[in-house]
Protein: SMC-Scp complex subunit ScpB
Organism: Methylophilus glucosoxydans
Amino acid sequence: MKQVLEAALLTSPQPLSLDDLLKLFAGRMERATLRMLLDELKADWSDKTLDLVQVASGYRFQAKAQYSEYLARLNPERQPKYSRAVMETLAIIAYRQPVTRGDIEQIRGVAVNPNVIRQLQERDWIDVVGQREVPGRPSLYATTKHFLDDLNLRSLAELPPFETFVQTDIQSE
C-alpha cells in the first residue's frame, strides 16, 4: 500500500488530497491508516533528495531546497517579477480577505489598476468568492488553494504575522 501511495504521489502533476489517495484503495482503507502510511513515507524519504510535504490541496513530493539552484538550470526561464502594486494588492487580499476593489483602494490610498487583479487571477492566486450586499454589488476577492500551494502553506494561518511587515517597514525608514 505504501508503494502505491509513493507511486501515485511521485507521478501526480498536482498535490493529492486524502480523498484522492483513498480512491486508490477503493474505500478499503481508513483515513487514520492512510495518515500513518504518509508519515512513514515522509520518514522514508527524509534522507533522500525529495520531501513529502502537505500543502493546502493535499500532499506532494518536492525537491529539497538545497537542490533548487541546480534544478533552476534545467528551466532557465526567469520567474515573473511582480510590481509593488501587485504584491501590495496580494498582501491585502491574503490578510484581509474577502475584500472588494474598493477596500483595496482604501487601504492602499490609490486606484487599483484592473491589470493587477487580472494578473493575480491569471496566476490563480485570487478568485471572486462572492459579492458584497451593497449597492453595485462589488466582487469579493480571496486567495485560492493554488496560492497556498505555491507558497508551500497548508492554510492562511501559516502566513507570517502581519506585524512582522509593519516592524520591518518601520526599521527600514
